[in-house]
Specification:
The chain is α+β, with helices and mostly antiparallel strands. The chain folds into 3 domains: 132 residues, Jelly Rolls, CATH 2.60.120; 145 residues, Jelly Rolls (Sandwich); 295 residues, 3-Layer(aba) Sandwich (Alkaline Phosphatase, subunit A). It contains 11 helices and 40 strands. Strands 1, 2, 15, 16, 18, 21, 22 and 24 form an 8-stranded antiparallel β-sheet that branches. It has a 7-stranded mixed β-sheet with strand order 26-35-31-25-30-28-29, sandwiched between helices.
């Protein structure tokens, strides 16, 4: 079976490289980069398969990385959920989504197991099953009172390459959500008609021989590799040997926007060993982050040897941009305000109809308002270290044992202290504390919680006003304020308790613990939820008023016009958009999106700043230092949001996570698409944030390669983070009591 049409032969060159080192060979001293070190980080998607849902669930719970990435058939939760025993249908209807690399004319195979005389309908009675695909009835079957049932149904010609499978059960299934289920879907597959159901086995994996620079695929399918192409790349070269199949090898690339581009593949006549030298031009994609996809869906066996990139330039790196000129003396004051659990879509400047933030809105009229800013995680415990260092994925620990910031990390306060700033911090959150070493660089770090201090946002603002008034003229001040509101307890100050339902008499009262309702949306009526949001909005109005007092103190001291003021949050807050309230339990944007309002001295607005570009809390340090003409520390990973615009060929990917734990969430966000995974629960989701900003429609079954592009990046970042995770600190009794009062600890 030919790999592609015969083309004239070209001289080959010998390549000797280590890792991603560059070697010169061939005509004109061309440079080449060996891709073999990256191959291990690629992924194989078999063309046809039977997914062992029971095996996959157990392997995922054990942390087996083979189940991190999508298989051709991807079970989604729908009305059911993954479990130790397989995929557990619930209720009258369950939904699966399957990606179909196979063509219509094959059969959908469902293999159920049922325990005798246990739940899942009337005791010991058969259950009728109806199966639809894309709204088309495929057929039905009967699940017997006990034992296995295999259902095989022909796929319709209209199936396409993504199939939504609906399972209707009569009578509805009633079974426990934990423990062994009465009914479980153990296997799901697509097979040729009448083909026997293969025995259970782990997913097929490619064979890799690094010494021979050889990759062999285990059967028909696609191999995908995430690559950052050099600016002067000209083509991809490799040797290929294909055996059996209907179509030649095809190659395409996908960018971060999900746009696919077929690459013209030219292959020479085979050598004595059957390998044919192949090449594909990449000059149109130079400088891009792409997913290279080797499509061997119609090839029985494929081997790839010595894949490498070829560059035509001289390898001279681009000259790095110089930092902006430093401001005139004296240096401006820097005021960094963190509002805990503040979601920007409840701010007037972000379009909220209620007057929750009049003081901040007034400040924002002459400020830069970044509308797509996000926390690394929905928890103070890991978002604050990211904010003050610019370093993503620092050890965070757990809620019970938060991590301590390493002494070697460089903070914004340390950088500003080196410039001559007096550095002062006030924090009302016990996770933002001296015990976690988050006071590095501050001459003064005061806790505004626990015993011996005056609590509340107004007490913090009065203390901040005192510090501003005492600051000597001519010396710059860095003042960092971490307010607790709008974080719970939702108990707005009386003048700002403006948004509650008139006449409401339900269970939601100011300051009440919300733990009993946090994961039980069904326990609250629509009025209960409206009251909850009204109290939150009153809390936000209280925080806004307290911020206004600090701004007024800057004006009174004559320091306002020459100050850099940044207002942000450590994370957002959910109100059951995805079944949860509060934060640190999901990675949907209601928990991750934060305000990012930056007022420059004099209220100036530099031309060309893109306020729609993705931003993160890790950008605080490099952006503030850039305004002062200083480069960020070498280890900082954030970007200066006021520097050159982003390169569209290399879209930024932000990584998110929840606190470390056995069922942690992870997410990767590109310019338009966002992938979410819970590796040990085999949860995989893909959302188009432009078409679906509410993150309601999971596109994984329709666009598995777009998910794969983000998932491979996420896998690399997860490995780095998990390798660096360290034991957390012991919380004091006072810290535990304070965190318990805030709803963090049980």
């Amino acid at each position: 079976m030919p790999v592609d049409d015969d083309r004239p032969t070209r001289p080959r060159c010998r390549l000797v490289v280590l890792a991603l080192a560059v070697a010169a060979c061939g005509d004109g001293g061309e440079r080449q980069v060996d891709l073999m070190p990256l191959i291990e980080g690629g992924a194989f998607l078999p063309a046809t398969a039977v997914v062992e849902l029971k095996t996959a669930a157990r392997a995922a719970l054990a942390g087996d990385e083979r189940y991190d990435l999508p298989s051709p058939l991807v079970p989604l939760t729908g009305w059911g959920r993954s479990s130790w025993y397989g995929w557990r249908p619930l209720g009258a209807r369950s939904t699966l989504v399957a990606h179909l690399p196979a063509t219509a004319g094959e059969e959908l195979v469902l293999h159920f197991a049922r325990r005798p005389a246990t739940g899942g309908g009337p005791r010991g009675a058969p259950i009728a099953l109806a199966v639809r695909a894309g709204g088309v009835m495929l057929g039905g079957a009967t699940l017997q009172p006990a034992g296995p049932t295999t259902v095989r149904l022909p796929l319709p010609a209209s199936a396409g390459r993504a199939l939504a499978i609906e399972l209707d059960f009569t009578p509805p299934i009633a079974q426990p959500e934990t423990g062994r289920p009465a009914i479980a879907l153990e296997r799901l597959g697509i097979l040729p008609p009448a083909a026997p159901l293969p025995p259970p086995r782990p997913p097929p994996e490619p064979a890799l021989d690094p010494k021979a620079k050889l990759l062999e695929l285990p059967g028909p399918g696609r191999f995908a590799l995430s690559v950052r192409l050099p600016q002067d790349v000209s083509e991809l070269r490799f040797a290929a040997r294909a055996r059996g199949g209907e179509r030649p090898l095809r190659l395409h690339a996908r960018d971060g926007l999900g746009t696919a581009q077929r690459l013209e593949l030219a292959c020479d006549r085979p050598a004595a060993d059957g390998f044919r030298p192949c090449r594909a031009p990449l000059d149109r994609l130079a400088g891009s982050d792409v997913l290279l996809v080797f499509d061997a869906s119609s090839i029985r066996r494929l081997a790839l040897r010595a894949p490498r990139l070829v560059m035509t330039g001289d390898g001279t790196p681009a000259v790095p941009s110089h930092p902006r000129s430093p401001p005139a003396e004296p240096l401006p004051d820097v005021l960094l305000i963190i509002l805990d659990a503040a979601r920007p879509d409840h701010f007037g400047v972000y379009g909220y109809p209620r007057p929750t933030t009049p003081q901040i809105d007034r400040l924002a009229r002459r400020a830069l308002v970044f509308r797509r800013a996000f926390a690394e995680c929905p928890s103070t415990s890991c978002s604050i270290p990211h904010l003050i260092t610019g370093r993503a994925l620092l050890p965070a620990g757990t809620a019970e044992r938060p991590a301590r910031l390493a002494d070697e990390e460089v903070t914004l306060a340390e950088e500003l202290a080196a410039l001559g700033y007096r550095t002062v911090a006030l924090s009302a959150n016990p996770y933002h504390s001296v015990s976690r070493n988050l006071h590095q660089g501050f001459a003064v770090f005061e806790r505004r919680w626990g015993q011996g201090v005056e609590h509340g946002p107004y007490a913090m603002s009065r203390r901040a006003a005192q510090l501003i008034a005492e600051q000597p003229a001519g010396r710059p001040l860095f003042l960092q304020l971490h307010y607790l509101p709008p974080h719970e307890p939702y108990a707005p100050a009386a003048p700002h308790d403006l948004f509650r339902l008139p006449g409401y008499r339900g269970p939601i009262v100011p300051g009440a613990p919300l733990g009993p309702y946090r994961r039980r949306p069904e326990a609250l009526s629509a009025d209960d939820r409206a009251e909850l949001v009204g109290l939150y909005d009153g809390n936000l109005r209280t925080a806004d008023d307290a911020v206004g007092e600090v701004v007024a103190a800057l004006r009174a001291a004559g320091r306002f016009d020459d100050s850099i003021i940044l207002i942000t949050a450590d994370h957002g807050e959910a109100f059951f958009e995805h079944g949860e309230q509060g934060h640190n339990s999901t990675l949907y944007d209601e928990m991750l999106r934060v305000p990012f309002i930056l007022r420059l001295p004099g209220g100036r607005r530099p031309p060309g700043v893109d306020e729609e570009r993705p931003a993160s809390l890790g950008d605080v340090l490099p952006t503030v230092l850039g305004l002062l003409g200083r480069p960020p520390p070498a280890a900082a990973g954030g970007i200066d949001l006021l520097a050159a615009p982003p390169d569209p060929r290399r879209p930024r990917i932000l990584v998110h996570r929840t606190l470390h734990g056995p069922t942690s969430w992870w997410a990767a966000r590109g310019p338009r698409l966002k992938a979410i995974v819970r590796p040990r629960l085999a949860v995989q989701q893909l959302f188009d944030l432009e078409a679906d900003p509410g993150e309601r429609r999971n596109l994984l079954g329709e666009r598995p390669l777009d998910f794969l592009h983000l998932a491979l990046h996420l896998r690399r970042q997860r490995r780095l983070a998990e390798a660096g995770e360290a034991p957390g600190i012991e919380l004091s009794d006072e810290e535990r009591a304070a965190l318990r009062a805030l709803g963090y600890l049980d």
